[in-house]
Amino acid sequence: MELTFLGTGGAQQVPVFGCDCAICQRARQQPQYRRGPCSGLIRCDGETTLLDAGTDLQQQFCGGDITRILLTHYHMDHVQGLFPLRWGIGASIPVYGPPDAAGCDDLFKHPGLLQFQPPLRAFQPLQCGALSITPLPLIHSRITFGYHIRGRQHAFAWLCDTVDLPADTLDFLRAQPPEHLIIDCNYPPCDAPRNHNDIQLAIRLHQQIAPRHSWLTHLTHEVDRWLQHNPLPSGIAAAHDGLTLRG
């Protein structure tokens, strides 16, 4: 099982439109520092599972190599890639997500080749090929699921977007800590983070869950600026676009 970060940025992305800070200037000049919309890709046993769809899927998957799509929630920066994809040609693509009847714009009304499945239920595993996927409730401004994803031998947990974790989700993860924890971190240390974790919350969750390694995602230029001058604890690192984890 391989997990590749297609994007590790927040809704602003990096560089931020109109911003001339040193972080954004660096990202414009050096593509390796850019952060696209937060999303991931899992390859396992010849199948491809997308985690969210904020990126340009037509360009990245022009050959139609998508087995299924797993959505955390229906904010635009996590589903915008579905809008042109739905009018593609070829086999339908199953799409799984939380029970949010509003969806996003007219995706449910005009799905095209997207085949929206019955809403997932919290803590009820879904078997997709060799993957066992368990939806985990998160804390966000609209209903959002994280996912515990187990392959034949190893497990990842994808926790984005969230500010802290509900008690039952934390208990689940502490009982079966994943090898790799992918955790939302939208803010540098702050007093009252809203809708997303700050550095302090992300570190605390790493300590509580105790995975082998934690990877910060949904990062902003403010977090990148903080990371330039502050080390992270052992076992935690900031992910970057294109990073691939194997397990």
Question: Your description of this structure?
Answer:
This protein is α/β, with parallel strands linked by helices and 247 residues long. Helices cover 20% and strands 26% of the residues. The chain contains 7 helices and 14 strands. The chain has helices at residues 22-29, 57-60, 76-79, 82-85, 167-175, 199-209, 221-229; strands spanning 2-7, 39-44, 47-51, 68-70, 93-96, 114-116, 126-128, 131-137, 145-150, 155-159, 180-184, 213-217, 236-238, 244-246. Strands 6-5-4-3-2-1-14 form a 7-stranded mixed β-sheet, with no helix packed on it. It has a 7-stranded mixed β-sheet with strand order 7-8-9-10-11-12-13, with helices on one face. The longest helix is centred in the C-terminal third of the chain and has 11 residues, at 199-209. It is globular, with a radius of gyration of 17 Å. It starts with a strand and ends with a strand.
Give the beta-strand count.
Answer: 14
* Total of DSSP H or I helical runs spanning 4+ residues: 7
Largest sheet: 7 strands, mixed
Write the element-wise H/E pattern from the N-terminal end onward. EHEEHEHHEEEEEEHEHEHEE
Global shape: globular
Low-confidence stretches: none
Category from helices, strands and their pairing: alpha/beta
Spatial arrangement of strands, main beta sheet: 6-5-4-3-2-1-14
Share in helix: 10-25%
Strand content: 25-35%
- Radius of gyration, in Å, reads 17 Å
Measured between the Cα atoms of the first and last residue, the distance is: 6 Å
Query: Taking all residues together, what is the mean pLDDT?
Result: 95
Supply the key terms:
alpha/beta; seven-stranded mixed beta sheet
